[in-house]
Design goal:
Length: 125
């Protein structure tokens, strides 16, 4: 289902191929700039400002989560395994891990509802 929608965007939407390529390459450039920014912070000892550094780490994790759910979307069935493995890491969190996994997946297993949920998370984050 997800791969078919990507093919639809590329073939049937006017300049859809350009939108898809710009989105993918822009995201890669964004991460490159993000890593440069982190490197600059390390070089200038910005990690000594604890509150600022922790906010930056939180933002980095949110950006990585957004990238992950966006990456899973176009691959559909092929990424069900990857989504299962990575989101299962949440189950290692004591007490709330299994509840988090079920909440992220939208049930007990990864399926089409999971992709719909990831699509929503990708745009909300």
């Amino acid at each position: 289902l997800a791969l078919a929608s990507v093919a639809h965007i590329c073939r049937d939407v006017q300049y859809g191929w350009l939108i898809r390529n710009t989105h993918a390459n822009g995201a890669s450039m964004f991460f490159f700039c993000l890593y440069l920014h982190i490197g600059r912070g390390l070089y200038y000892n910005s990690y000594l400002q604890k509150k600022t550094w922790y906010v930056g780490i939180l933002l980095l994790f949110l950006v990585m989560a957004t990238a992950f759910v966006g990456y899973v979307l176009p691959w559909g069935q092929m990424s069900f395994w990857g989504a299962t493995v990575i989101t299962n890491l949440l189950s290692a969190i004591p007490y709330i891990g299994m509840t988090l996994v079920e909440w992220v997946w939208g049930g007990f297993s990864v399926n089409n509802a999971t992709l719909t949920r990831f699509f929503t998370f990708h745009f909300l984050l």
